[in-house]
Amino acid sequence: MFSNLPPMTRGLMIANGVVFLLQMVLGDLALAAFMLWPLGSGDGYGAIEFLPWQLLTYGFMHGDIAHLLFNMLALLMFGAPLEHTWGGKRFLTYFLVCIVGAAVCQLAVGAWTMSQGGPAYPTVGASGGVFGLLLAYGMLFPHQRVMLLIPPIPMKARTLVIVYGVAELLFGFTGWQPGVAHFAHLGGMLFGWLLIRYWRGQPPFGRRPPPRPRIVR
């Protein structure tokens, strides 16, 4: 089954697995400079600060095996059909834009947290990209039925996107699920939505002119 996956989806899964093995072997401290750190965090935590490459590298690191497996399962479920639809180049572009978009939103949250006297803490995980894939799947295949893991309830893809989006907003503003970058997840969805609308020529990026009518003689 794994060998039959489209190449970009398979490559992303392998890359995430390899990086997680490096985390286990080398330890998080050795790879801390590749996690996403808030702006200005260097003065508050062992001289580790935000560096530009962290906008991408954090998305290939994970906190534990459950975190990795959940994201890779979602990448398998939603990434493969999207890559089959878009092709490898567009799919990879979309995924990485969602990773960066999630990082931008998390940087804003981290800056606000630090301004309120909170600690500087790093963010890791491909979840921002995965939530972007979920949104794209719901937009391209809105009536496709998918199954929630917990609880195991089947629903339309569009409904699943709405449920997860509302849940992330609720958890993000209430703090009911601490230690999870809820606004990064929403950032991945937001940037994914904007990119799809850009590709389609939809507002806020303007509208493509309608095709000229044909004259049939």
From TrEMBL:
<dbReference type="GO" id="GO:0004252">
    <property type="term" value="F:serine-type endopeptidase activity"/>
</dbReference>
<dbReference type="GO" id="GO:0016020">
    <property type="term" value="C:membrane"/>
</dbReference>
<feature type="transmembrane region" description="Helical">
    <location>
        <begin position="182"/>
        <end position="199"/>
    </location>
</feature>
<feature type="domain" description="Peptidase S54 rhomboid">
    <location>
        <begin position="53"/>
        <end position="196"/>
    </location>
</feature>
<protein>
    <submittedName>
        <fullName>Membrane protein</fullName>
    </submittedName>
</protein>
<dbReference type="InterPro" id="IPR022764">
    <property type="entry name" value="Peptidase_S54_rhomboid_dom"/>
</dbReference>
<feature type="transmembrane region" description="Helical">
    <location>
        <begin position="12"/>
        <end position="37"/>
    </location>
</feature>
<dbReference type="Pfam" id="PF01694">
    <property type="entry name" value="Rhomboid"/>
</dbReference>
<feature type="transmembrane region" description="Helical">
    <location>
        <begin position="160"/>
        <end position="176"/>
    </location>
</feature>
<feature type="transmembrane region" description="Helical">
    <location>
        <begin position="57"/>
        <end position="79"/>
    </location>
</feature>
<dbReference type="InterPro" id="IPR035952">
    <property type="entry name" value="Rhomboid-like_sf"/>
</dbReference>
<keyword id="KW-0472">Membrane</keyword>
<feature type="transmembrane region" description="Helical">
    <location>
        <begin position="91"/>
        <end position="114"/>
    </location>
</feature>
<feature type="transmembrane region" description="Helical">
    <location>
        <begin position="120"/>
        <end position="140"/>
    </location>
</feature>
<keyword id="KW-1133">Transmembrane helix</keyword>
<keyword id="KW-0812">Transmembrane</keyword>
